[in-house]
Amino acid sequence: MSAAAQAITAVVVVGALAGGMWTIARADAPSSGKRGPATCSATDDAPPSKPVSGMQLCTALNRPDLPALLEVPEEPARNAYGNDEPTGLADGRKVPAPEATVRFETYTVKLSASYDDISVAGTADLLGETAQARKVLGRAAALYSNRTIAIAFGSDQADAGPGGIARSLLVARDEKDSGGSYELSVWREDGMPPDDAMVLRVAERVLPTVPGWAAG
Questions:
Q1: Which CB contacts under 8 angstroms, 24+ apart, belong to 178-181?
Q2: Euclidean distance between CA atoms 79 and 103, whole angstroms
Q3: 61-86 burial, b for 16+ CB within 10 Å, e for fewer?
Q4: Distance from C-alpha of 84 to C-alpha of 134, rounded to nearest angstrom
Q5: H-run or E-run covering 204
Q6: Residue-range domain boundaries for the chain
Q7: What is the mean pLDDT of residues 58-86?
Q8: What does the mean pLDDT of the chain come to?
Q9: Of the given ranges (61-70, 146-155, 196-205), which has the lowest mean pLDDT?
């Protein structure tokens, strides 16, 4: 296949809590020799979200030990980027929806923040029968699965097909679960489901470093 035909978009349908659908679209640029880990960049021109921006989420997620936490210590990050495009609600309001993505050869990891008034407990029934209630870092949480869609771009067309399973962890923004959440999603490029213990391990290391976490 040509380099263009190997470009993959992973689309994950996220529950109603975090804006519906999000898209990752990145192709690896050709390189020679050993490549260092990717640094965070922005993918849009939207002003930084408050109280936390997509670039700040990217900095928290793209930590030096993330490959070790994912159990791929020899893999450098291929892409790392943040996005601050807000989410539109049914009543016409727009709420901040910053997100960050770090992609490796084996895994892709996404971290997002939602500033709506929906509690994690209140969305548990929307996440499917396999959703598991959890406590993470003293806050209400839910672990559930998403199906990804893989899209291969050729020279004149794009082909879509079913992708693998992403495991997503939703964590309340505060200990009272009064509304809003952080969400960590992990999926494998080979379509195999990620290990739940690994998803929880990444969340427990990354979330406390997000600006504003302690005040939540």
A1: 178/119, 179/116, 179/117, 179/118, 179/119, 180/113, 180/114, 180/115, 180/116, 180/117, 180/118, 181/17, 181/18, 181/113, 181/114, 181/118, 181/120
A2: 5
A3: bbbeebbebbeeeeeebbbbbbbbbb
A4: 28
A5: helix 196-206
A6: 8-209
A7: 95
A8: 80
A9: 146-155
